[in-house]
Amino acid sequence: MRVFLISLLATISSALTTTAASALEMRGLWLDNKAWDGVQAVVQMYDCEDGNGLCARIIQAYQGELAAGQQNYLLIRNLQPQRNGTFKGIINPPISFVGDSDVVIKLIDEKTVSYSSCFLPVCKGTMTKL
Question: Which residues sit opposite 22 in a β-bridge?
Fold first, then answer.
């Protein structure tokens, strides 16, 4: 029984550490590999101002020019780590016909994540850590 409890505590501790480490790895600058209206953007992932998970803002263009209103645009909000290693939150792509939708972000490796939300191709992509 004692061995079982120690094993269970070690597993829970490992899961919590992995989730915390994954959230920490998400913070920083990311290159969105998708071009939004022809612009490939640099996105900053950070702790949301309201304390509710991680947020991501478009901070500058990597290729192309940002349109009016796209500088400092809140792309993702309320991103929370899930037990299965993914993150869930809300995405609002800077495209007029797509509004808020749920997004799932998966870590592909230490430098790449994929995201997916609505059924349209515009709602799927990858980001690379800068």
Answer: none
Q: Of the candidates 66, 64, 59, 67, which has an alpha carbon nearest to the alpha carbon of residue 42?
A: 59
Q: 46, 72 in Cβ contact below 8 A?
A: no
Query: What pLDDT score was predicted for residue 108?
Result: 92
CATH topology of domain 2-129: Lipocalin (2.40.128)
Report pLDDT for 23: 52
What is the bridge-based pairing of β-strands 101-109 and 87-91?
Answer: antiparallel
pLDDT of the residue at 9:
33
Give the integer Cα–Cα distance in Å for 54 and 46: 5
Q: Could you tell me the pTM of the whole model?
A: 0.76
Sign of the Cα pseudo-torsion (43, 117, 66, 79, in order): negative
Q: How far is CA 71 from CA 3, 18, 79, 82, in A?
A: 55, 33, 20, 29
